[in-house]
Here is the input.
Amino acid sequence: MDVKAFLKEITASPDYRGQICGEHIIPARPPCYGELAAPLPEELAASLKAAGIEGLYSHQAAAVGLVRQGKNIVVVTGTASGKTLCYNLPVLEAWLRDHDSRALYLFPTKALAQDQLKGLKRLTAGWPQAPVMGTYDGDTPPTSRKKLRDEGRIILTNPDMLHQGILPKHTAWGDFFARLRF
Here is the structure.
């Protein structure tokens, strides 16, 4: 169901009568693309192209450029505007240049971490070698936890697991933390 049909349906519903106080349609606008100062590594560029991404939006290119300069960033854009690439591209680019680099992603929920892992796996599908990555949460089996701790390059977790399962065992995580770039 598209947005117009949805709005028509709920405005016709007696359950919603009197609850919708206004409607404002924002017209579509053409995308604004940006350029990177240096191209992405070949594997990463090919992955984007395979996903149907022909160019980066201006906020994505700006974010990647700032991260490449070692700057911290905050990206605030609308839903489905490509925020994920703002951090996945620099992390994967760093890993392609140095297979020892590490990244720790924190998400508020296990479900979001799982969704983000699926996206990372789609982006690295078909690479001759991909970084070892996975979710580290309460559902992660002990053998997988050890493998991620010892071999993981991109670990996705949540604040609770960081405080309850990772930081109390920080000495075992020393190698991971010593190589943590993101």
About this structure: The mean pLDDT is 94.
